[in-house]
Design brief:
elongated; four-stranded antiparallel β-sheet
């Protein structure tokens, strides 16, 4: 298990729901986020302190997650 960002502990290879996305921690110290609204993915590295590198994400037209992310002041273009 590894602590990632402020979200919590993740097991390698186990999909975890974080609200707007399903995340998967990989044994190569990367994390994939798959948008629950449109299925788009972003993968980025995880630093030694557990901080996930920001990744540019391009949601598909009509994605239902974008409005929800903007309401909570998250930038839906970055993951």
């Amino acid at each position: 298990m590894k602590r990632v960002d402020h979200t919590g502990l993740f097991r390698v290879g186990v999909p975890t729901d974080i609200g707007w996305a399903i995340v998967v921690l990989h044994d190569d110290h990367t994390l994939t986020r798959t948008c629950k609204g449109c299925g788009v993915e972003a993968r980025s590295a995880i630093g030694p302190a557990g901080r996930v590198d920001e990744a540019r994400i391009h949601h598909r037209a009509g994605c239902t997650v974008i409005d929800r992310l903007e309401r909570i002041s998250n930038d839906p273009r970055n993951s």
